[in-house]
Structures
1.
Amino acid sequence: MRRLIELITTLLGWSRYKLGFRIKSTSGMVKVNLGCGLAVTTGWINVDGSLNAFVATLPEVFHRLAFRLSGANRYYSEPEYRHLLASNTFFHANLSYGIPSKNESVDFVYSSHFLEHLCPSEAESFLRECLRILKPGGVIRVCVPDLAYAMKMYSSGRKQEALDKYFFVEDKGSFYARHKYMYDLELLSNLLSEIGFKSIRQYDYRVGNVPDIELLDNRPEDTLFVEAKK
């Protein structure tokens, strides 16, 4: 079922890209949360390729159906799920085709626990797109599982836990849920620098220059939090 849903949402993402669906520009501050899943908050445009993001703008009856199909019922009650969809701004897009926003149209980009689900070439393309859509001086915050933390876990004797959680994440129902790559501070900083980002710096959990990180940041124990500017 999950593979069928992924196929459907992939086709929807492709068709929306071909039809030219784009995030609408606004005169105010534009904040995009890319690859968000359901880790969202108000005031942001929450962009994701999931079934959840697609049905969020549809009538409530579709929310009820999606709750039963999407796997969200493992983490949320139905009222919680419906409230998340109804009270936040979602935009459905397959980010492998690019970010559906104009050049230099975004003030802040936030992306948490998404980059590791991309192959290295896809991750580079994604970050180049982030640079493209950011306004001059705009800020990106990238949050990923910290390779250094995973290696420390492995070295301490928790080998199987480290392998299962970070390197060979097994989810037989979902190709997208698997980790394709890992980053430590040096690897991520070098990648951002090569793409053209400046002022690259590691921050602590819920500390930085991006709005609402006290609501968006999660998993403080194993996450690397890095910000950079255009």
Note: The chain has nine helices and seven strands.
2.
Amino acid sequence: MLHPTALISAEATIDPTASIGAYAVIEGAVKIGAGCVIAPHAQIIGDTWIGEGTSIGRGAVIGDKPQDLGFHDGIQSGVRIGKNNTIREHATIHRGSKDGGLTEVGEGNFIMVGAHLGHDVKLGNHCILANAVLIAGHISIGNNTFLGGGAVFHQFLRIGDYCVVQGNGSFSKDIPHFCAAQRINRVTGLNVIGLRRQGFSTEDRNTMKELFDLIYRSGRNLSQAIAAARERAWPAHAEKFLQFLEAPSKKGVCQLRADKEDE
């Protein structure tokens, strides 16, 4: 199942059930798991592990050097990709920028054409990154989140679980769990449709709406709203949302914004 034109390093470990396509390049101590499909002209480089059942599209480049001016070739870092991911044509995933640093992709993700994951990114499970999504370095993305085509994200921010982000958006601040976001650093509400499709109960959704309104629509600033929310106990999903807000990155958190503000 190895095409005769593929270039495969003697250091690589490839499961015998994996398929390596024409002119693919497997360079260095790559590990490729059972049932993986590496399409023609893909390149898998260095300390990169590909979990079983994952497919890598034509022309994708996984494990190359990070786009970091402080990086040098002696740094030992890598990429870890979990099981059953689909990574389509010309996607790029760069390795970590410091010794021991890893860029990590969980399980069951769908990374579409031309998407980019920069160095030291942590991507959870069952996410969809549409065409040309650009993820800068050191970004953390949760589980079951959808990022629309052409959306761009500045380094060091966090994106929570069960989020939906509109295509062509531009973000330099955290997007909390369960939220919908669009345009420039704008949260527009909860991802209500997504939560319903993912099986969240009416009670859970209503509780999260109550907490969302307290945080974003009560007229308080963020710290005041969190303090007010802490005057009572919340169920698990709402508590998770609140904890996210209590530990923002240095970028801060996206705010609820009216349409007229940046049109």
Note: The mean pLDDT is 96.
3.
Amino acid sequence: MQRLMSVFLITIFASIALVGCVVASHGVPAPVEDRTISKPRAQSASTTKAAVAPVISENAAKPGFYTVKPNDTLIRIGLDQGQNWRDIVRWNNIDNPNNLEVGQVLRVVPPGTTVNPEGVVVRPVTSPTTTTSNQPLAATEPQKPANAVAPQPPTEPTEDAITFVWPAQGGVLTGFDEAKNKGIDISGKAGDPVLASADGRVVYAGSGLRGYGNLIILKHNNTFLTAYAHNQTILVREDQSVKRGQKIAEMGNSDADQVKLHFEIRRTGKPVDPLKFLAAR
């Protein structure tokens, strides 16, 4: 009886093994879990470079053009270049003045002008037209007296023609330091008058330049700008003409640690020591 039971069990195990072989021979796969993770396709070097490479302008680094840097604003660029920021907008056909891009190249001198290596704007001079004649020159022109003086072409006022007056009555708190203080700080009380230092036109009036508070910028000619910062109240508007000694603001401490007037003189955009230009008191 025991022997028969053993034979029966052997037969059953053999049958099970035979079924497994048949299934395997018919190609039915055992279930598996796919643990592979698909990796993103790497961009080609040329594609990546094209995506981040700045647009190079043929005018970059040329005199009369400026390349935008991080944190630049048109007001700051205008002050540093000695220009009205609205003129820069017009010269460059800028649609949104608040949307400058790093690396963008801007024209900062009027179209049709050039800048010499010293940074001075040179305007084109139109030569007078001349006519030719077959007759001798003596026959076509009257004789000039021997002591006659040739007429001189009209000239624009030179920078020496401007006399700057003190914009406030207080003493000097902090002197000029091109690296740390681009002008002088003048003491006073809140509400003291701030005066235009010379005849000019308001090219900026507002608080859009960090560190200056309520700021006024006057343009006096193609060479000079003056800046009046930390005002309590601004009394002029942009594009308004002002006269030397005219009250343009009231002293305050906007964006400053105390009441004072921060006063700058810019020559072709470069800050200079106001004490070398202000008239003696």
Note: The helical segments are 2-25, 45-52, 74-81, 85-91, 137-140.
4.
Amino acid sequence: MRFRSVCMHFVVAVGVLFTLTDSTEGHVILEDPNGGEVLEAGSQFTIRWRIQISHNLQNWDLWYSRTGAGGPWINIAQNLPPGSNAVGSIHTYDWTVPDDPSTQVRVRVRMDNSGTDYEDLSNQHFTIESAALPGDGDGDGDVDLADFEIFLDCETGPDGGALAGGCEVFDFDGDTDVDFLDFGALQTSFSG
């Protein structure tokens, strides 16, 4: 939702009165996330916004909604330092994406001023996906026999154990290689 100010101009041409409307952007503009992004739970995402019209800025507040533009709104950060108050100045916040999966997520930023507050939110929905479960090669939410088969394909495939094509979920020891050292951890994760 963008708050817009509207300026009316009156023009008289050949005895006819025309009204021209000029719509300008709101006082604060949320730039990222603005719709279409796919964020993984636990990852870092930089929320970005800029000042369109300067005010007596006190601080910034951020929220997200997992059910669209109507909320309810869940706190991200409150009373962030005001930073630069210059028109066009960019402000950011590094957000650790919560494990709160949804395809209808929006972020909202509020410019807290000594007078009227202004806010903006993502123009369209974006998605938060759950982080991949280590060892869950087929993405079905558990580690089972099907995942052992995928592990073997990753270990012995044409890339020779190099991380590629979804094999990252099997790199338990973090050495960027799927090999016998990861097999024991996969067995421990086995859920049946």
Note: The chain has a mean pLDDT of 80.
